[in-house]
Amino acid sequence: IQCTGTLDELEVEHMSLFWDGMVDMDGHGVFTKLLDDRNRAGNFVLNMGFHQDASGLLAFYDKTLYERFAIPAGMTVAAELKIRRGVYSGQVKLTERSGSVRIDGDYLMGTDKYRLDMQVDGLNFSAFMPKDSIGSMQAVLHAEGRGFDLFNNSRTAIDLLVQDNGLNPLLLQQSGNTFL
Asked: How many angstroms separate the CA atoms of 84 and 43, rounded?
């Protein structure tokens, strides 16, 4: 990690990690007013690539996690975080051979308001859960609200459309209380 500056303006010029056979990571960004909740700002970009032994990373957390789940070789993650005066915005794209997951969201500090959009495009979950896979999936999720209470319509709105690889739809719509 190579950083310069102060807590008033900090530049992460280069952050990198290469762990042979496991993962490589590269990131950079700039942050200002780090101790000031109202005026904090910044932008950070992170890219990661996973290699043939990446699943071994799971064993550092929990042996049973390692035995049940996998991190597929060739998977990439690209992420960006933006901070502007109490608004935290992020985008993440996970790409695996079979498909991808895109996540875009915002969080407004001080009010607990949030917005989250997620799209799963043909991702085959057997690459991540080889022992109990649900197969390929298409899904779209939109959630927004303040705080989080799944059963309180006045605080949370969730729309979720999921299709399995046979394109059979499953709809969950909390804002209108439709669960099917």
From this structure: 9
**Contact by Cβ (8 Å): 98, 125:** no
Beta strands 99-108; 9-19: pairing state: unpaired
Residue type, 169: P
Q: Whole-number mean pLDDT of the chain? A: 85
Return the pLDDT at 32.
97
Start-to-end C-alpha separation, the chain:
48
Q: Please name the residues in contact with 58: beta carbons below 8 A apart, sequence gap of 6 or more.
A: 65, 66, 69, 70, 71
Contact (CB, 8 A) for 145 and 159 = no
Distances (CA, A) of 59 to 62, 133, 170: 5, 20, 34
E strand segments, 97-155: 99-108, 113-124, 136-146
pLDDT > 90 fraction of the chain, expressed in percent and rounded: 52
112 near 84, Cβ under 8 Å?
A: no
- Rounded to whole angstroms, the Cα distance separating 135 from 160 reads 18
User: Does the pLDDT at position 150 exceed 70?
Assistant: no
Neighbours of 104 (CB within 10 A): 15
Helix (H) or strand (E) holding 63: helix 63-68
What span, in angstroms and rounded, lies between the C-alpha atoms of 139 and 158?
A: 13
